[in-house]
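About this split. The held-out portion is used to measure sequence recovery: a designer receives only the structure tokens and must propose an amino acid at every position. Recovery is the fraction of positions where the proposal matches the reference. Here is one held-out target exactly as it appears in the evaluation file.
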């Protein structure tokens, strides 16, 4: 089958990754600590929520991400993130 008209559509969304690094509702935890000054090599697992607005108190959860992030910059904050995102 082929389409008579273009079979593409574009959707633009503004979504917010809700990361909680500390406290009772934390959604990430370090599994490998680093002795390097900038934390180089620190590795953490995450189960972040993705929300549809900047205020977590009023926003709706639209997806979840599960994955890891690694402090990959010797000189300072520079995180490499990889995760899968599943929309609800």
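Reference sequence for scoring:
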């Amino acid at each position: 089958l082929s389409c008579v008209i273009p079979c593409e559509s574009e959707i633009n969304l503004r979504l917010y990754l809700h990361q909680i690094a500390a406290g009772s509702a934390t959604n990430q935890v370090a599994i490998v600590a680093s002795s390097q000054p900038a934390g180089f090599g620190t590795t953490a697992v995450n189960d972040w929520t993705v929300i549809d607005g900047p205020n977590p108190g009023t926003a709706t959860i639209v997806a979840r991400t599960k994955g890891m992030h690694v402090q990959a910059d010797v000189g300072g904050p520079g995180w490499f993130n990889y995760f899968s995102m599943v929309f609800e």
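Annotator remark: Residues 41 and 71 are 5 Å apart (CA to CA).
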